[in-house]
Design a protein that fits this description.
The complex is a heterodimer of chains A (123) and B (167).
Chain A (H helix, E strand, L loop, with lengths): L1 H48 L11 E10 L2 E13 L10 E12 L2 E12 L2
Antiparallel strand pairs in A: 1-2, 2-3, 3-4
Chain B lengths: L4 H4 L5 H54 L3 E8 L2 E7 L8 E6 L4 E6 L2 E4 L4 E9 L6 E10 L5 E9 L7
């Protein structure tokens, strides 16, 4: 009886340990794509930040989607939303604009999203 | 006279000993195999994670230096790998640079004579493109790093230079 219980406990322990290794590897792969998505979102915000407000890409509303490609494979898409922002404290003609970049993708059956926003000056 | 048989039958037979030895060997082999596989899996995941962090840190550092700069100049070092120099407004000498060094296949960074390697992971590709339609952006088209166990990590982004006169 003792042998059966010991074997059962050992089997459960090893199975749980193996599961944690697999889960850990899965998370690292998942974060790899998330880091690529973050770089993509940051790049989009940098591009938008040097555009004049009159540019069509900075008109209020949703823009995109554009494909999100990682290592030659399209995993999802990238879109951005522009919201006019009224800040009475900031004495800037035309106010501010909040740009929110959303990169969404599916990998391994999981849907993931990176969302990054920045307030841009209107000029 | 009474004969005590149990006293004569104590101990293990050769067959029992062989079975125990074989079972112990099997269990030991399973434990060692599991340990080696676990160790390999942990090392693989750890080195990949380190390379991911190094790539993210390098991209972040490049973006910070770009923000403080007025102009960027990209030159080819070897094949598709580049050297990126950031300049202050009106200055002819680069204030900071990032470049791929063919001697060690690492990206180095620094200002003037002082330079340091940006991490320990081998860089296979450090490709940059200055914006053709504007002069305030520089694009990191591909940063491909290889982790210690040979796995590739690729990132890309765009960086803006804000230390310029207002439009």
């Amino acid at each position: 009886m003792e042998v059966i219980v010991a074997t059962l406990i050992a089997t459960l322990t090893i199975t749980a340990l193996a599961y944690t290794f697999g889960t850990g590897r899965g998370l690292i792969d998942r974060y790899e794509i998330a880091r690529v998505a973050l770089g993509r979102a940051q790049g989009r915000i940098e591009r938008l930040s040097v555009l004049p407000t009159s540019n069509a890409d900075l008109s209020p509303g949703m823009h995109g989607p554009q494909p999100f490609v990682v290592n030659g494979t399209t995993l999802g898409n990238e879109a951005w939303r522009v919201d006019p922002m009224d800040d009475p404290v900031t004495p800037i003609v035309g106010g501010l604009r909040r740009v929110t970049v959303i990169v969404a993708w599916t990998s391994g059956g999981l849907r993931d999203t990176v969302r990054l926003d920045r307030v841009l000056l209107s000029y | 006279m009474r004969h005590d048989r149990t006293c004569d039958e104590r101990g293990l037979t050769l067959t029992e000993l062989t079975i125990v030895a074989v079972l112990a060997l099997l269990v030991s082999a399973a434990i060692v195999t599991f340990y080696i596989n676990s160790q390999a899996s942990w090392t693989d995941a750890s080195s990949k994670s380190i390379t991911q962090r190094e790539a993210t840190a390098l991209v972040s550092h490049m973006a910070n230096e770009a923000h403080r700069s007025s102009q960027a100049v990209v030159t080819l070092v070897d094949g598709a790998n580049c050297r990126l120099e950031f300049f202050d407004a009106g200055q002819g000498v680069a204030r900071y640079a990032f470049w791929w060094d063919p001697a060690d296949s690492l990206v180095h960074e620094g200002s003037g004579a002082q330079s340091t390697a940006s991490g320990t992971s081998t860089v296979e590709r450090f490709a940059l493109t200055p914006c053709t339609s504007c002069d305030s952006l520089v694009e990191l088209t591909s940063l491909t790093m290889r982790s210690a166990d040979g796995r590739r990590i690729t990132m890309s982004t765009t960086m803006a230079m804000y230390n310029r006169a207002s439009p």
